Every structure is written in structure tokens, then in C-alpha cells.
## 1
Amino acid sequence: MSDAPAAVRLLRRGRALEAATLGWNVAGVVVLAVAAVAARSVALGGFGLDSLIEIGASIVVLWELAGTGAQRQQRALRLIGAAFVVLAVYLAVQSSVVLAVGFHPDRSPLGIAWTAVTATVMFFLAAGKSRTGRALHNPVLVTEGRVTTIDGILAVAVLVGLVLNAAAGWWWADPLAAYVLAYYGGREAWEILRHHSGA
């Protein structure tokens, strides 16, 4: 019973971390949509789609932390896994087309600024989720912390592509960054669907 107040505090912290992730990604969808259209960037568009999927992942974890039924959680996780499959396929095809036709995206100062800040925020949130999830012995929160870490890695990959395009004119760095997104999207889909493929 003496651990009950600590558990309540940890649950509150876990919900706060997920709510912060959710809010950031909701804002990110808007910012990335504007930046992607303005720069005609495949990588920024793909990162925006990834943010949509991360919104779904955060909602799933908030449900789980609220004590929502396991069957509903399993269904939601399978949907997120399927969404990652669609994202990976879309980015792989779109990036291949862009490379084949030699399409040159424009520079994106907004995209560079947003992805740089997003990488920092995601790594900070991921560390908090990992610590809180381990303290709660909650594998769902720990796993979602890993997804948030990957989100930070993807932000770095997109940032590198945008900077190389802006600074050196390496237009092909943008679709290559999208390939990185496609790889991690496919890997996440495999992990989620492999562990949550039951009825």
C-alpha cells in the first residue's frame, strides 16, 4: 500500500508525457503539411504521415494507462501496424519515382527548424517514457517510448536531407531521407504486427 501514491504519480507522469507527445504531433501535422507543400518535399510529407501514426500510438497508450480493455488495445495496435505498412510502401514508391524522374525539391527553412526542434523534443520524451514505463513495469509505455525514440531518429534523418539539399543542392538527399522513413516504418509495422497478431 505504501507504493500506491508513487504509482499514482508515475501514472500521472506517463499520461503527461503521452499528452505532450500527442500535442506536439498534432501541431507537427499542420506545420509539416505546410512545409511539405511549400518545398514539394517527399521526406517532409512522409514525416507528416508518420506524425499522424504517432498520434494514434499516443492515443492507444493513453487508453491503456486509463485501464482500457486489452482487446480494444490489441485492435488499435494492429491498425497502427497496418498504417505503418501503408506509410512504408507509399514512401518507397514515391521516393523511387522522385529519384527516377530527377524531381528537385525546394529549400525548406521551416522544415529544417521544425525537424531540428522535434528531434530534441522526441528524444527527451522518449527518455521520460522509458524511465516511467520501467518504474511502472508497463511494457506498453516502454514500447511507445521506443517508438518515440525512432521518431527522433527519423527527424534527424529528414533534417540531414533538408540541410544537404539547402546547403549543397543535393536534391536526392530528400528522397533518400524518405527511404530511411520507409525502412523504419516497415520495421515498426513488423514489430507491432508480430507481437499483436492475435485475435
## 2
Amino acid sequence: MKGTMRALKAHVRGGRLLLDEPTGLPDGTEVRVALVDDDDLDDGERAKLHAAIQAGEAELDGGQAVTEDELWARLRVIR
């Protein structure tokens, strides 16, 4: 799972994060936590956002990603 990012849902209980689902991650795995602020998306916009995120994750899983160096090289050509 190294190099991939997957969102996991959790809640705070007793000052600790409690995941809403099992992860299958081995003990000692380092994770990063980001707080989610409320946004002003309506249900339709949020559904489109989630669909786009899932499509992006599918592309990554399918090997359709480029390295950061390749991305910058492509962007420099566009200029």
C-alpha cells in the first residue's frame, strides 16, 4: 500500500481516533490524518467530487499514473 492514498472515515471518542471500518494495515503502519472542514457543496456537487476521486483512484490502481518529474515535464511543454 506504500505510495497510495486512501481515505478512511473515523470519529473521535475519548480523545482518540476510532476508525469506522477495519483497515487491514499492519501494526506500526504510519498514517497521516487531515481534518475535514465543512464545505459549501450541495449533494450533487459532492457526488460528482466523490465520483471524480474514485475515478482517479481507479486510474492509479490501473497504473495510469505518471511520476511527479514527468508531470512537471509535461506542464513545462504546455507553457
## 3
Amino acid sequence: MNAFHQAATAYAAAAPIRTHQDTEYDAFAQITHRMRRAARAGRKAFPDLVAALHDNRRLWTILAVEVADEANALPRDLRARIFYLAEFIAQHTPKVLTREAGAEALIEINTAIMRGLRGQTGGS
């Protein structure tokens, strides 16, 4: 075994392994942070809010497609609840875009999903 192989093996053992849940959590965290920041900044950050809402809707559309697949390994009840949330996101987002509603509900839903991905049940 040469020194390069030993170094590569040692590094590989120490490198963190990212899971699918880690990736999902990061996507939710980034989008939720952007929505929260833009919502707090008010009218001047509306273009940023629009972009974050667009990305959030895309994320939830991907989730809806995944949980609608019968081959998905999640329990059927959980898949149904996630699909329902995706429908809510799709219906609520246009209300935020037309300023008929705030983004708070979307932020709260994403935060709850992030807690679930981390295995937490209470507040963060």
C-alpha cells in the first residue's frame, strides 16, 4: 500500500457521509432562510421573496411527485400528509405573491419539515 492510497483511505474514513435527508434538510433550510429574510425585509425585498417562493414551490412539487410514487418507501399515511402539504403550498403561494397572505405559514411548514428531517418533535 503506497502513501497516496493510505492518505486517501484515511481521509475517506473521516469524511462525513451525506444522506438523502441531509440534502433535503439543506434545501429546506436554504429556501426557508431566504423566505424568512425577504419577508422580514418587507416591500423592498419582494423580488427576493418571489425567487424564494418559486424555489419553494419547485421543491414541494418534487416532493409531491416523489410521494405520489407507489414505490416510495415512506409509510402511506406520511406520504399522504406530505402530498397534502404540497397542495397547500401550491394554493397558498399565489396568495403570498398577490399580497393577500403572508409567507409565515410556508415558513412554519418548512420549519416543521426540517425538524422532522432532524428527528425533532418540539420547537427548535
